[in-house]
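Reference record:
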Amino acid sequence: MTTPTEAPSHRNHAADEPAAAARRYADQRRAFYGHVGGFATGMFIMFAVNLVTNISAGTAGDWDAWWSVWALLGWSIGIAVHGFVVWLNRPSFASSATEQIDAPRGPRTPRDDSGEK
């Protein structure tokens, strides 16, 4: 009979699970916000190009000349689905755990434990 060369790990992986889930959720939210930022920038550019071309062509008053509306509708569906998937993947403790992960960490200040205010 052979004996293992390493002792089995007694580390509790269940304790790491909430932190890992919160980190994954925070990453998914950041990716979603990036998607929303790209959407806003892209749609602004598309509407600007569409407006300039419509004005130069003299068709700004015709609804069928506004092709950028179709991009808005299609991309909005993608944003909505992405947001819904992120919302479905949130852990049950996400509100407090991800706020702690996402919170910016400023410089640490020494604590004054003297009790004086």
Observations:
- Helices lie at 13-57, 68-88, 94-102.
